[in-house]
Amino acid sequence: MYRSHTCGELRLEDKGKQVKLSGWVQKTRDKGFMVWVDLRDRYGITQLIFDEERTSKEMMEKASQLGREFVIQVSGEVIERESKNPNMPTGDVEILVSELKVLNSAQLPPFTIEDETDGGEDLRMKYRYLDIRRNPVKNKLIFRSKVAMEVRKFLAEKGFIEVETPVLIKSTPEGARDFVVPSRMNEGQFYALPQSPQTFKQLLMVGGMDKYFQIVKCFRDEDLRADRQPEFTQIDCEMAFVEQEDILNTFEDFTRHLIKAVKGVDVTEFPRMTYDEAMKKYGNDKPDIRFGMEFGELNDLAKNKGFNVFDQQELVVGIAVPGAASYTRKEIDKLIEWVKRPQIGATGLVWAKYNDDGTLKSSVDKFYSEEDLKAWAERTGAKAGDLILVMAGDAHKTRTQLSALRMHLGNALGLRKADEFAPLWVVDFPLLEWDEETNRYHAMHHPFTSPKPEDIKLLDTEPGKVRANAYDLVLNGNEIGGGSIRIHDKKTQAMMFDHLGFTPEEAKAQFGFLMDAFQYGAPPHGGIAFGFDRLVAILGGQETIRDYIAFPKNNSGRDVMIDAPANISEDQLKELNLRVTLQ
Ligand code: ASP
């Protein structure tokens, strides 16, 4: 037996017990006549004591030679500590060691295995197994596991069946590039790794599975912006004989359950907002509604007043920053600089202060009377003490820029509180999205999403106006889930492919299996997928997913610990009948 207890378990009530512990040496304190060792495992830290008066010379020697991260086993008696440590759950006791066994020695770790480590990100990634010993990482992985358990518990109770779908498949268009795998047995041919199990879960519905879920790895070869991973995990779900309403209700309960189970927080409201409304009010299809600062459109109030910077623009729009009327010129200039950075790309900001005494003062006083500015205040919801910030330009671009500023200020003013949860559904997404690069329409969600029946007539004339039965679940400014009601008949699916620029031959070659299946009795169905990594991070009160993944990749898609991707041997290439020629 290696241990009778864990290192996080013993308390004063255990005084007098003979115990056995195993773990890692966190640190030692050697006073010559006494040696203390902090022994760590997954569950906590327990202090060991070696005392010259109560132990052999040989053991004292052995104890003083212990190095950091040695793996040891000890036996001894639980005794009451003379100087207790109230900050540690085990801080009232220590183990008077009678036996010590070194199970494995360790090299000095390249960084300290402490909550506040001296190791930089790169080093910690290279030695991720050491990083995982640290509480901040370890606790996140434990948290992730807890969320996964709750996911399974809830869905199983609701009658969902977990089905695994294959990883070596054919392209599923979720809007990213595929990772591909060469096939040895089928010369010159490649599998694609799933960007999601989308087509399979639909086929499971045709197969009568009715309620499906899977916690599943998905793969997308995208440029890795700050917080993306080339392989990530989804909670993938699909239901048959459902309408949009059924799905929204089911997954509202699901989300409510998770937040309650892992955070103890009751979320009651799941407001719904159309895509158009979200864009107008927040400039964003995933608004953080933990705080206000809704957009106020000022076209009718700000144009044609002689300020021609505004006159020529498609949209003039502002927000009220609570309590910021007291900002100095310098502080406002800083915000102006912030929006002018290339990442945001705005041309500038017009400001108006709604002073505490009720007077108004702006950077454009030459053109606007106090009366005018009062109207701006009303439109943006500004109260005395607030600062109104206004942007103008192309509607979509300006909304996006103002949204970035709103989030920036939300952070700066501490309005995005980690322990508050504000979910909402964004519904009625456009079916199609114009792509400037390829000069054609793409499916905004994916090509299997059903258009709203009443909008189908617009497909030929105004395709950009067609709305989809698609929805996103947004939590604290992040899209945590998205899905749609699917097309379930061959005719509509073929029409959709046609509008997306597929020839009938191309559609058949890529998705013939799905359209065939639709001919054999496909039930109406729909579903949703949650980004599991992000969901866990948000529930954990953080916005970066990396620490919640045991072995993440870096921004260039590399696993620096195992050093992948890597070249493969000539023999392997030969077997695959492939030659690498780098261009
Ligand atoms: N497959 C979709 C996605 O990965 C989700 C869905 O429509 O259920 O975004």
From TrEMBL:
It is an enzyme of class 6 (ligase). One of its GO terms (molecular function) is aspartate-tRNA ligase activity. PROSITE patterns: AA_TRNA_LIGASE_II. ATP binds at residues 220-222, 229, 479, 531-534. It is found in: Cytoplasm. It catalyses: tRNA(Asp) + L-aspartate + ATP = L-aspartyl-tRNA(Asp) + AMP + diphosphate. The keyword Protein biosynthesis applies. Residues 144-552 form the Aminoacyl-transfer RNA synthetases class-II family profile domain. It comes from the Bacteria. It holds the Pfam family tRNA_anti-codon. Keywords: Aminoacyl-tRNA synthetase, ATP-binding, Cytoplasm, Ligase, Nucleotide-binding, Protein biosynthesis. InterPro entries: Aa-tRNA-synt_II, aa-tRNA-synth_II, aa-tRNA-synth_II/BPL/LPL, Asp-tRNA-ligase_1, Asp-tRNA-ligase_1_N, Asp/Asn-tRNA-synth_IIb, AspRS_core, GAD-like_sf. Its EC number is 6.1.1.12. Gene3D superfamilies: Bira Bifunctional Protein, Domain 2, GAD-like domain, Nucleic acid-binding proteins. L-aspartate binds at residues 174, 220, 445, 486. Residues 198-201 are annotated as: Aspartate. NCBIfam families: aspS_bact, PRK00476.1. Catalyzes the attachment of L-aspartate to tRNA(Asp) in a two-step reaction: L-aspartate is first activated by ATP to form Asp-AMP and then transferred to the acceptor end of tRNA(Asp). Belongs to the class-II aminoacyl-tRNA synthetase family. Type 1 subfamily. Homodimer. This is Aspartate--tRNA ligase. It comes from Salinimicrobium oceani. The lineage of its organism: Bacteria, Pseudomonadati, Bacteroidota, Flavobacteriia, Flavobacteriales.
